[in-house]
Amino acid sequence: MIAARWLSPIIFAALSACSSPRLAPDTRPNPQLITEEEVLAALGATTAYELIHNLRPNFLTYRGETSFDKRTSTPYPNVYVDDQPFGSISILQSIPASDVSTIRLYRSGEAMTKYGTGNAGGVIAISTRH
Predict the structure, then answer these.
(1) pLDDT band for position 75 (50/70/90)?
(2) What count of other Cβ atoms lies within 10 Å of the Cβ of residue 114?
(3) Do the Cβ atoms of 90 and 35 come closer than 8 Å?
(4) Any idea what DSSP says for residue 128?
């Protein structure tokens, strides 16, 4: 009887020590995705370029030469809108921020797998509000 009285707290303590800790949900933004909520909250942005520049400027950075021939190299991501080729980064200035739903950056390997070999610099994929 005395052993049972001491054994219960010891078992409880051992089981509590073995359980996994409760972690808070990860609230950091996805570094490769600009969500619709972020787009809506981006005050002052009038173009897709401004949205990206304000929220994930790393999307717009130089990725390095993708070919030995600099004339055919694509060191910056190509832009796709609703999974259709749209142009180079400069075209982002012509896309109204109000039309944008989400923006995703596909790095080199992902971009070439999803969109083809001409995308070694990556792809900025914009989904619009339909």
Answers:
(1) confident
(2) 13
(3) no
(4) E
